[in-house]
Amino acid sequence: MGKNQVLGATLSIVILGTALVGCSTWSFGDRLIDAARAQTNGGVQLGSVLDGDWDHYLVVCPYDPDVSSRLGFTWEKAPNTAESDSSQLIVFVGNGEVVSSPRVSRATIDLCSGDSWELQPREVGIHFVVAGGRLLGSPLPG
Questions:
Q1: Which residues neighbour 39 within 8 Å (Cβ) at sequence distance 6 or greater?
Q2: Among 124, 133, 114, which Cα is nearest to 42's?
Q3: CA gyration radius for the chain?
Q4: Region 82-106: what's the mean pLDDT?
Q5: Quick one: average pLDDT of 80-105?
Q6: 91 vs 98: CA distance, rounded Å
Q7: Dist CA 24 CA 10 (whole Å)
Q8: pTM (2 decimals)?
Q9: CB-based contacts of 138: which residues, under 8 Å, 6+ apart?
Q10: Distance between CA atoms of 55 and 124, rounded to whole angstroms?
Q11: What are the beta bridge partners of residue 105?
């Protein structure tokens, strides 16, 4: 095998490996959609979707001006919630600080179609119903 053939084969393997890694990575939103569609007990526990050292979560909807007061502390790096109404944030809190805040598209899952969310303990799941082809979520009663 010539030098160019070896280089070409190596490059092909690197590209294929990169593509496979990209295909196997699910976003938080994808995992939440799968969990919501598979729910059998009427709700999804977010701890089954996102591991980590967090004890509370807060759903932040577009144009939400009151995030820090509902979190109970000032979130210095809070994103601008007025950028788009096509997504929502789920803010995970541990030890009094934000540990993760994935943005989730509202095209398939909408957690912002009802009342404003309060800070929820990890044990409180989300109840989903299907309406108009979308999954609408609200906190499970405690």
A1: 128
A2: 124
A3: 19
A4: 93
A5: 93
A6: 7
A7: 21
A8: 0.78
A9: 111, 114, 115, 126, 127
A10: 10
A11: 87
